[in-house]
Amino acid sequence: MSFQNHEPCPKCGSKDNLARYADGSAWCFGCHYVERATSAPASFLSRASRDVPLPVEEYPRIPDDCGTKFSEEAVAWLAKFHLSIPDAIRHGVVYSPSKQQIIYQMGSVWQARNLNLTLGHGNSGRSRSKNFTSGNVNECLHIYGHLLDSTSSSPVQLARETLVIVEDPVSAMRIAPLRPSMPLLGSHLATGRLIALSGLYNSIWFWLDSDKLKEARAMAEKASLIDIHTKVIYTELDPKCYTQDELTEILK
Q1: Crossing angle of helices 191-198/213-224, nearest 10°?
Q2: What is the rounded distance in angstroms from the CA atom of residue 233 to the CA atom of residue 170?
Q3: Of 167, 169, 163, residue with least CA distance to 87
Q4: What is the pTM of this model?
Q5: Exposure winner among 73, 86, 181, 217, fewest CB in 10 A?
Q6: Strand partners, 94
Q7: Is there a contact between 43 and 107 (Cβ–Cβ < 8 Å)?
Q8: Alpha helices in 1-117 (DSSP H)
């Protein structure tokens, strides 16, 4: 969420500890006083619903050859996590043949899953990480399964007040039919991002990968300081590894 300025805090009286953000929300870094958002963050809305161009950022652009024709390897990789190609396409997933990347589009941010972890050939090849992310993750509030009011294009709560936060987009897509879900694209939740979410949801559940339980608990504790009901879910496998029936049982 875009920071605007520092202000005096009405609760503790500090001169400049209150951070004001573009959506009207505020957070005091001294006493933890909070004001919830007065408008939905613009980055939350999809490009189609805003009908305005995304800002030009100094980040790598999405590959030019992206499309909806997936390689056999990409189809098999998504199938491992119970995600069909029609469902993937519906969530904005595309494939780059030249880069051998499955690409998740999330507003002004995109993330690629590299299927080929070696660039080049033979001994001259160099390794690359499993995932590559382009864009400002701390301003990404792309929520799968969140319902939009068709008349005003503004986020509304239709008896779905709980958000599930996970690490990766595929896990979020799998959870979306059951509850709104947002991928962190990592294991860190910036304060501004959390404050923006507090204006949309009363309850947030944190379900990170098994090796990030400590981080999940820390985020839940931070969220509870601004009166958000929290829950930490721990499982041996990543959320995307479970069947839909298993997800339904876990997310009761």
Answers
A1: 60
A2: 17
A3: 169
A4: 0.72
A5: 86
A6: 103
A7: yes
A8: 47-50, 72-80, 85-90
